[in-house]
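S.,

Sequence below, as promised.
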Amino acid sequence: MKYLEYYSIIKEQLDAQFEEERENIEKAAEYCSNSIMNERLVHVFGCGHSQMFAMEVFFIELVVWCKLIHCLFLICHCIQRQN
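The prediction came back faster than expected:
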């Protein structure tokens, strides 16, 4: 079955890439997490289909902020009702 052959080849390539780039991936993750913890910016970029990574980072951040704003709204609403 061709799709299993395709999957196998892609998986092998990804596994090899992760092994070869493990140190760089961990270093990049450390830089990004340090920036986030220090309330600094993390710039992401992609052109063509690789822009999906940048979009995902943006939309995850947007969802987190929306949930935070919603929680703050509910807290303010509860405080107003008590007064």
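The first helix runs from residue 2 to 37.

Coffee later?
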